[in-house]
Write a structure and sequence with these properties.
The chain is 51% helix and 17% strand. It has helices at 14-25, 32-45, 53-59, 90-99, 103-119, 129-133, 147-161, 167-183, 205-219; strands at residues 3-7, 28-30, 65-70, 73-78, 81-82, 122-126, 139-144, 196-199.
C-alpha cells in the first residue's frame, strides 16, 4: 500500500491540500480528527463522563473506527455505522477535546490509523504522521508557511464566515499553538528526517498540490 504523510503547523493548509492530493491520486484521505470525534461519540453514547479518565481508558479499546469513501464522500464508520451526521454536535466536540489527551485513546487510534494504512492507499495529515503514525510512509511532506501568512489566511476565512476576526490576536494564537505543539511531551510537531519541506507562503493551493504530486511521482 502507498502511504503519504503530510505534517505541519496549524493553518498551513494540511487538510485542504491532503484532500486534493488524495482525490487526484484516488487514495483515501484519512481525517484523523474525525476518528477522534468518532471515539468521542462512542464514549458519549455509552455514558462515559468526559472527566473520568479511568473510564475512558477502560472503554476506548472497544470500538472499531475506520474511514471509507462512498460515492465520493468520506464516511466515518463507528462499528460499521456511518456516523458523519453525529460528529459535530457540541457534546461530541467537548468529549473529543477532553478524551483526545488520554494516552490510551491516542494509542487505540494510532493502532486503527496504522491498520487502515496497511489496507488502503492513504493520504494522512496531522502533526506526528511522518514521525509516529506512519514512520515508514513512502512519501513524507512537511507543509509550512510563516506564522503571519497562516494568521492572515485564518483571518480571511473568519471574515468570509462572518466570524469575529482580529489579525493581531489570531497571529498571537497561531504562534502560541506552534510553541505548544512543538513542545508537547507526546508526539510533538517536528519535521521527519526524510520529509520534504514545502513552504506554501507564496504558493496557491493549486501550486502546492502540483508540487506535492510531483514529489509523489518522483518517489513512487
Amino acid at each position: 500500500m502507498i502511504n503519504i504523510a503530510i505534517d505541519g503547523p496549524a493553518g498551513a493548509g494540511k487538510s485542504t491540500i491532503a484532500k486534493r492530493v488524495a482525490a487526484e491520486k484516488n487514495y483515501i484521505y484519512v481525517d484523523t480528527g474525525a476518528m477522534y470525534r468518532a471515539m468521542a461519540l462512542y464514549l458519549y453514547r455509552n455514558g462515559i463522563d468526559a472527566d473520568d479518565s479511568a473510564a475512558i481508558s477502560d472503554r476506548c479499546g472497544e470500538p472499531d473506527i475506520t474511514i471509507e469513501y462512498r460515492n465520493g464522500e468520506q464516511v466515518v464508520l463507528l462499528n460499521g455505522e456511518n456516523v458523519n451526521g453525529f460528529l459535530r454536535t457540541p457534546q461530541v466536540s467537548d468529549m473529543a477535546s477532553r478524551s483526545s489527551v488520554n494516552p490510551d485513546v491516542r494509542a487505540k487510534l494510532l493502532e486503527l490509523q496504522q491498520e487502515l494504512a496497511r489496507r488502503e492507499n492513504v493520504v494522512m495529515d496531522g502533526r506526528d504522521i511522518g514521525t509516529v503514525v506512519l514512520p515508514n510512509a513512502q512519501v513524507k511532506i512537511f507543509l509550512t508557511a510563516s506564522a503571519e501568512v497562516r494568521a492572515r489566511r485564518r483571518y480571511l476565512e473568519n471574515i468570509e464566515k462572518g466570524l469575529p476576526a482580529d489579525l493581531g490576536e489570531i497571529t498571537a494564537q497561531i504562534k502560541e499553538r506552534d510553541e505548544r505543539d512543538m513542545n508537547r511531551p507526546v508526539a510533538p510537531l517536528k519535521q521527519a528526517d526524510d520529509a520534504v519541506l514545502v513552504d506554501t507562503s507564496d504558493l496557491t493551493i493549486e501550486e502546492v498540490v502540483e508540487k506535492i504530486l510531483a514529489i509523489i511521482d518522483e518517489k513512487i
